[in-house]
Amino acid sequence: MARRRHRGSKLLRDLPVTALAPLAPDPGGETTMPAPPWHQTHYPGKAHLLRHAAAEGQLVFVKCVRCQRQAVYLAADLVGLLNPDRDALDPPFPCSRCRSAEHIRVDCRIAYTDEIGNLVVRRPGPLRQTRSWRSCKLGDP
Questions:
Q1: How far apart are the first and last CA of the chain?
Q2: Whole-prediction pTM value?
């Protein structure tokens, strides 16, 4: 039994393989499918690094899609904590509630004028020193 078609449309099986999705060469010699659009950078062909975001004075908006937890960081603060040559749209930290970086979405942009003075931004606080304890026998140093 033949499948019904809408007028002017083609079935996926009738299209050539190259028309469905361009295949990207893998360093191992195999061809792989390209990354889905939500995993691609906003600036195709350009690497938007964390140091570029810090130089432009951008904010890094981080949201966990799973538990809806949100945080906003200054890119200049993240440069001091993380590698400045990493992609700015990679999750800086895993979610503190879910303990996973799989569902984190990152966006970089400059603050709007109405956000200045109203937007809560997470900044690094003072470094606290904690004492660690070890067990040893009485008389051992």
A1: 86
A2: 0.60
